Sequence to fold (859 residues):
Amino acid sequence: MSHSSYARMWASCQGELEDLLVDEFPPAAATLLRPQKDRGQIFQSLATSYVKYLQIYRCLEDVYDHIVHPQKRRVVRCVLDGAMGRLLELKNEMVELELSEFHFFDDILQDLKLTPGDLEIPIPRWYLRERTQVLRDREKMLSHILVKGGLVEQEPISSVRTMCLEEAVRILQVCERARQGRLRAKFMTEIQRAAREALVGTGRHTPPVTMTPDQAATRIQKVWLGYSQRRRTKTERLEELIFLGMAPAEDQHGPSSAELQAQQADASRRLVQDRNEAEYQRALVNIKESVRVVDGPDMKETLQEQIRQWFIECRDATGKFPDFPNTEDGGSASIFAQKTPEQVAAELLAKEDEREKKKKKSQAKKAGKGDQKKKGKSKGKKGKEDVEEEEKGWKMTQSRFLPTVMEGSKIYKDVWQGRDDSQNFLQRFDAQLVREEKREEVEDEVRVQVDELMRQELKNLKLAVDRDKGKKKKKPKKGIKKKKKKSKKTSKRKKKKEKDLTADRSLESLYEELVLEGILIRPMNIKLSDYIGEYNYLGTTLRQVGIEPMPSLSDVRQLVALYAILPLGSRCIHEKAPLVKSLLLAGPSGVGKKMLVHAICTETGANLFNLSPGNLAGKFPGRSGLHYLLHMVFKVARQLQPSVIWIGDAEKTFYKKVPKTEKEMEPKRLKKDLAKVLKGLKPEDRVLLVGTSRRPFDADLKPFCKVYRKILLIPRPDYASRLVLWRELLHSGGGGGQAGPGLDLSSLAKVTDGYTPGHILRAVRWVLSPRRLSQLPSRALAASEFIPPLARQDPVFKEEEEAFKMWYSRTPLGRRKARAAKTIEEAAELKKGKDGKSKGMTKTDVKKKKKKNIKSKKK
Fold:
């Protein structure tokens, strides 16, 4: 696509964003409306805004990745960060409203004419592109340390497998029987050939059939036409099945020509982006220097003249020279904010009065603390009543990202919306915009210097004209000193900073020690898109009926992108978005928990620290050793952020009772210190604790949920996800095996109900051995071949799935949801009771009805 095409995409996206901002900031009359009470209507509006912001984010991410103009890219990035942050805020609002991590948007997709693919959250491509050099240097350092410590994983040259005597004899017998069979087949072919030669020699063979040339040609045409028509029919049938999605597409060896051309265009755009960015950075320095040299002296003179004129006007108006504004108040910039000298003088006097009032209030507080406490209690009661009145309805919490979105939209409107950029074929920077921007910066720098000079000049004027007043105004300096003393006293009361146990060591030495101890490991190169799953098409329908649907693997993939990848990859988003310090991935073995951890690290370029109980066994013994380890891990994680701290088998850290076989491993070492360390993480620290658990019900629930605030329960895949899994694994993940039209994938997906993606992957790898792959051209795959390897594995039984559901219902979010459902039921029953009374029903009739409802629910 051309530069103009992406410019049009940006313009259309900004138009949609303007419509959304109108909904976000309704007119003044609409804001006076009462809080909303209909939960269904609230969720519908939140979900619609969420889907719309997601479409804007997808469009802007594509525009930002392909646009090459450096100044346009900055404006797009500003709006893009705001849209991503708003997306996370709306998701948090939906979770607090529905008390569920998973939400379904079937009806909204239908209304907006979108597909389930439009709900996929793309990972920003600049997360890794802008850190390419840093990631390369880190990879070099990691490989160097591994080679130095002798920890490089070398591929075995020859794998020798030990076997017992009976197995060796059986293998020899098989080989010998195969050799004898080949010899026997060779002898039989020689005997048959000799018999044919003998028949030809005696003349006893049947003579050839003679026919005319026309007959021969007709027979050849008949055979050829039949063969060609059968082949054509077969290909047309296969094409129709592929078009309908009933058969997988044929495997193309390598990308197509169109894909190659698109890749080359993207690569050339990357080069142009880098070249234009480097040119822009050089221009920022050069233009600023030229503005400072050319316009700096004039700016200084004009500012001095304006401030002197202000001195004279203030003296004429008030009879005395004004006080010069402090640097905290903006200095001379506050003077020229389109105000008269009288207004400026009045503002300065008002600020002085406020300071005096604050001093008096502080003295009054010290004098009568008891009376204030009593008043505070009475006020507190009133305040609670007001809060209860306000909390009856729902109101949207104040957004921290909407100002960013509005700022970017304003820049687009003012600068780029009506700008004719048709002559800028190479999409280089605009020098005039850079000059205007740098002129403001230089003016601010010059203003600071001029303020210092003019303060001294004003002081000299006051000493010369108003000497008596000047002496009196020296007294407040003592108050300033006292304030400084008070600040020193209050600083002593603050909590002491934690001791740096590794103050004498460099970051490189700490990094090396963690790598050599196996704590800092290299993540596997897995993308989030490799986590295969299909969208749940009946989620909203089931919820409307009153059935809670199980989430699909596609929903899990989206939540991992929202809670982990988007905040970790961007500092701006992590600081302002709802903070997620820890995340627990719970589910049966084989659902892809470990794969998701490695995908988070790959997509964000994060360091991976392994603090699993099995990995810590025998390392850093004792209490002091554990403190030293945690200090080292979190120090390196903060310095080299983003970082992911992974705890596999997280339930072992919070065991109710440690099994005898695991007592030597000391799995509960981290239990007490983990919550304390997490409290020390701030929004500026892009560090995420991720736990994975196969048996979360073995853990003590209260401390477990105290550490892991966000819990994602990963279920076994549904039918749609299993069908996609079979197709993808057979096509690529299973070692190059292709599913032909004769293979019934639908039956395989139905049969494997209860099996996890790990079970299916193991079955595919077992069947598609190198020998079986070599036989594919002659013998196509059949569904029956996958039954034996599946039968050897235990699926996820219904009892285990119910145990996971019961455990999740006891988590804080599950309990809140149960309480909310109970209150809704009670309200509905009360309403029914009132209706029954109005129709002539007695209390006993209402009670009987309740009992019948309870019995029917139990059945």
About this structure: The first strand starts at residue 520 and ends at 521. Confidence is low (pLDDT under 50) at residues 28-32, 154-159, 372-391, 470-494.
